[in-house]
Structure of FMN/FAD exporter YeeO:
Amino acid sequence: MYTIAYGHIGTGAIAASQITQTVCDMLFVLSFGVSGAALVIIGNLIGAGDEEKARDYARRITVTSLMLGLVTGAIIAFGAKGVVGFFNITPATAETAVTLLRIAGGFTAISTTGTMLIVGVFRGAGDASYALKAEMFAMWCVAIPLAFLGSFVWGLSAVGVGLLAQSENVVKFLIGMTHLKDGKWIHHIVKEETHESI
């Protein structure tokens, strides 16, 4: 859907956004690995009935994700110009791509942490419904409408739309941290299913 918003601006905007997405996806592999590990660890701890340890590990994983995001973001931001140089694009598109990459780098810490909480901790804790609602709300109720408004109504550049699109990561991060602190994300799925069957 973001591609449609960028497409309204022009082909250069699409190319710049696709370069940004490709580079970020390559560097986010480690973050996705942390999310997968978090899902397994939290799920095993809750399954074993050790809620306090699960909460402790969730906090530790959150800090780890933040630190990982800061490092990854710095790599993206400082390496943006060099990476874009490998692509055969116009100078204007290259400049836009560099700026979009630096914006993405600046939001990487909250992006990786929000994803880790929603995909890793909450789903691992059996709170998949909340995780799905959080992702849907952040994307379809906030980020995509803002991106379309920026492109079709406000006439913003690709950089402006890119900033608005980052609202998805901001919202997921805020929702994730709030839900982590309220402690209502732990669900004993096995016990609940066993009780219902009895």
